[in-house]
Amino acid sequence: MFEEDIFGEDTVSLVLRYSDYVRQYFDKKSKVVTFDRIKAVLTDQEMNCFFSKKDDRRHIITIPVSDNGCNGKVEFYVEWHETNSYEIKVNKECKSRYAAESPDVDLKYTIEQRCKILFLEMQDQFNDFTAISELYNLKERVSRLEIAPATIIENERQLWTKYIEAQRMIVKKLQEPFCCSGKFRLEPIIGAKGDVTRYKLYVPIEYSASSVPEAFSNFMKDYEESFGSTIIIDKDGNARLTKEELNRVDIMIQRKFDKEIGRQEKITCSVKITPLGIYDKLKAEFDERRWDVNLDYDRQDNFLCVSCRDGKFVKIPREIIDKYGLKLTGVFCKYIKNDEYNRRFVEIEKQAVKLPNMYKINLVAQKMRDAAFDRKKELEREDYKSVSFSVGQTYTFDEVNNNFDDDFWNGLKTELYGLDISISTKDNLLFFDFTSFEKLQERLDQLSESKIFKLVNAHINKMPFKVHFFQVENKNKLDSFEYKKDKLKNVEFITSVKIKNKSEILFIGNLNGKESTERELVFSIPYRWKDDQKKAKGILKLCDDENFQMDCVKANLRGDEVKLSWLDEAIKKLDEKRIDSKEPNKKPVNPRLRDFIFDSSKAEPTYKFEIAEENFHELSEYKELEKRQLLALNQSQKNAVLKALYAKDLCLLQGPPGTGKTTVIAELIWQHILKDPTKKLLLTSETNLAVDNALEKLMGSRNVNETLSPYLSIIKPLRFGRSSKFEEDGKKYSVERIEKWLDDEYEEEFVYENELSSLENVTEESLDDQEDGDVNNNAVQQWMTMIAQRAQSYAEQNPRYAELTNMYSTSLCSPDGITKRYFMEKYFKHANVIGSTCSSTGSPSFAADYASVYSSAVYDKFVEKEGYKQTISDIKGLIVAANNEDNSFQDRAKSIIKRIMRENNINTEDELRELLDEPTDNVKHFLFDYDLKQLLKQKRPKKFETILERLGFDSEEQFEQTKNIYFDTVIMDEASKATPPDLVLPLCFGRKSIIIGDHRQLPPMLYEQDFKEALLSLDDDKAAALADDIDRQFVNTSQFARLILNPKVSKSIKSVFTEQYRMHPQINDAIKQFYKNDEGGLSCGLDLKKVDSPNLAEPESRYHGFYHPGFISPDVHVLWVKVDEPEQRTDSKALYNEKEVEAVKRVLQYLKHSKGFEEYMQYWDNNIRSTERRNIEKEIGVISFYGQQVKYLNEVKSFARNNGMRLKLNTVDKFQGMERNIVIVSTVRSDKYKTAKGIVTNDDPGFAKSPERLNVALSRARRLLIVVGNNEFFDHVKDANSGNLLYHNVIEEMQKHHEIIDYKTLTKYV
Questions:
Q1: What is the pLDDT of residues 200-237, one digit of tens each?
Q2: Is the whole-model pTM more than 0.85?
Q3: Can you tell me the distance from the alpha carbon of 1028 to that of 1012, in angstroms, rounded to the nearest whole number?
Q4: Looking at residue 1041, what DSSP letter applies?
Q5: Which is nearest to 294 in space by CA: 369, 327, 304, 448?
Q6: SS3 sequence of 672-705
Q7: β 1238-1241/429-434 pair status
Q8: Coil, helix or strand for 483?
Q9: What are the DNA2/NAM7 helicase-like C-terminal domain coordinates in residue numbering (predicted)?
Q10: pLDDT above 90 as % of the chain
Q11: CA distance 1192 to 1137
Q12: Dist CA 42 CA 67 (whole Å)
């Protein structure tokens, strides 16, 4: 009998395996519907099941359940098991569970299949091969399904939760303490002015190795047997070897020990020095004056013998004799004899002259010369092949400055600055690293030219060198000292100390990665500025205590810890369970953010703008935009502003390099505030620089519509964060600076911990924070000045009000404390643009600053309920405390009292009491501010409930609501460098999100290999599971790219800028290939009639004017310098290319000697007042794909400085967001590389094949781009994503303007 299969297929046996863990943890929250009950209900049942895809590894099986008291569905998250069946998974990401609801499936992303359900334990056998085959075919069909959008969003959330968890593991590992093993020592570093600028703290630490590893012992034994001599490698892997011994061990490692032992490529040379003596200085002076003089030195008798090479008598000028204290003593004759074997013999006869003067000396010398002719003939008869002689004077002198005094060491430090050479003042040694003996000889030759010291026994073949060996199996571990040292260099370190029986954390300095070893950590303690000195006070005081010992030291990564907690909280805000939360800042302002942050098609479109952009001009909104346009915009920028202005949820703007993202941001702020000045905007970015640039672009008076510029005062920006990290343009909007303007003794109220101590943005250059600058240069004072200027303009039109207006203007331009506070409160009340970095928006201090600034409604209640009267009572108590010397609160009380008196222009306590009895509005504002900031501090004040009541709050929950952050619009720049948690941090505070980035540039700086190795090195099952989810696509694709490239996203909420104004058209042609697939491509928007104008004052000119035969001419703006040399690799596989370093140096030499170069640099000196802006114009950017190459290029930086040139040196990744007039790119990679075995071929360009990285590298230059590298190798490199040739078009475009130059031909200045 035929039975119809209503599902279109036969029944499939669905085999589900489970473990005891599944039985125990399945749907833990449900105590009724257990796994065993579900199993009992479903076993051997035939029913339709629904299969969907969670990701490439996991599937979801939804099965309807119908049983007494158990009606609904069960969802099993499953993975394919090696037994050709499904395994049920129960964990944090795979929540297999029961739900009392009917199956709700989207058939587009689901397969419906009739199944017979079988449950098996993991060890059970199942040998029905037909059933296995059917189930396998079903699994393959499910694997080919699309993943449902809702599942994609959930996967993304889980993945980034894992990422945060993994980062936490790594930070925790890096914070493991180093145990101290002895007494530390402190060394002051003296600056050019003779003051201490920093200290070095040397801290001995325990080293785990207690004996020489067996691999080293075997190696030493084999060396002795092979060569009949011994070498010693200590337990740390260090050895002192000569050049010959080094060559031998390299051969041994290559032929026999390469699997056991490796040698660090860097070798350390130590060379003894001594100050130049009188003889050395005199010889150098004679050479400098190019005198044809022989100078011999008899060390035994301390005689200088001076004679002319042409045989004539020497006459030394009196100034030389006086300068060096020379004393004439007599004459000498030097005979030089050569025998038939060309062996050379020297014989010197000396004759002292009593009471010598030049007359006597000449007489004695003449007699000695006559006798020398006879002596010469005698010597020639004694079978000498040739004999020559010279007669001269002898001098004696008193040796001075032959000791190592402070002047010598200071002069030495100045001479060696930037050369990567360390100094040991104790042993009179110089230390430096080298990788080849050719480089060593170059360095020794360079040092031998010093005018203040000389090298002692610096002969390469005789010198011993420090060499470091390592065991191969111990490399690349997270626990390795080298890994930690590299990650923690320049990071702040702390120690725990007991002070008055209380444990306190003490700052001890920033790690000096270069000088630290496995036995001793070296820390740098900045001491230049007041804040530095205050921070260093604790450790310096304890260093004076001979009994003080440190038990351990550790990295202070508090900033990273708190930022990760903020990122974790940001992801949790997307949880749908929080949709009804009443707690402040626990859910996004726009509930749809939880969907469109991962799937941009979920954002609401602006249907009016779904028409073609060329028809926008017909829209009334477009016409209105043009009427109130503040800045000059091109067509693509206008379209972008229009879409962003009217977007409801989200707008995505792609801004390629130089296309005016800052201009668009400024216009967007203007347009939003002009529509409604009461609206609040948050401007945020990954860096402070981008935020500050946008504010300055908007508020600066340059390039704005003159008709509308008077109305700029409706925009009132503020900057939240640590002001010392801001650019000067941003500091004027800083809340901290405004508070210091109000009170010059103000101390920071709210600390942004992410900006204090972390792995991010810490370099040697950043260790010294800049001083705060002029506090009068702030937004409130500028606003007051603007009002005063308007009043003056009014007075000019109405002279009868002139006197009154002058008084008013004076009070605004030179305000007292009362006036300052009045206008500050007004400015804060109407502040409508807040600027901050993305990470800082997650800080509790951001919420505190927000609540403090937007507190006018709370203040009104405070005044209405007369809460200030109780605060006045507290202040009067402070007056008593301030006068009580025994009160521990005295200093704080005095500080508060003085602040009130300063701000209200009173001088006595009687005046203060009188003021408090009849408080003015200014005093009430002060009292309110005083109370509110006590509540907002993270440390809860003792009188919390009392202060809460007098501020007018009915409950703590009501107070917490003041911290609930709300912005009508969030504008986020540099979004392509942000991870989803970084995006969510600021965007969750906005009703509308405008995200600006460029996915054709670099994504977030996540390194797949390092990240995976670090996770796996933790030897933790959870970490290993996380590593499985970190793939190359995850690392190399930014979230911004996922959003803007979503094929389903509405074109009404995304836009692309298509004209760039940074680069010369020739440079634009080299990078436009990266944007050919984007709407509109990328073209140069500069006026072609002005772009080559020699007038550097012309804003659109990209002229440089350099001319050098065989190198460059004014019409060349792109240039490739060929370096066909092997790349090199350190023992840790870091890449560099020393020949490219030499090539960059030669390029700089040719630029320096080019006609027009000096005039070009002089122009900036003569026409730009700002030192910061002038340096940016003059600096030459030198960038590379590889950090190791940047370290080697530091040598070029020193060379450039000595030649009067400024360089900005960095990796391509860290140069993103910056630009310079001239940029040199060192590519490093080659078709060959050096090894101990010789030259080996290479066909892998590594991440140099990333189109995003190449795009960033080539798009930093404005006037001149020079690429240094192996063009023949790169000509065949293909895009890692598309497979298209990547560099070919670049090289081809460059060759249109200038032929490729081989660096070997650039020899004129070598």
A1: 999 999 876 656 788 888 999 999 999 989 999 988 78
A2: no
A3: 8
A4: H
A5: 304
A6: HHHHCCCCCEEEEECCHHHHHHHHHHHHCCCCEC
A7: unpaired
A8: helix
A9: 1036-1271
A10: 36
A11: 8
A12: 10
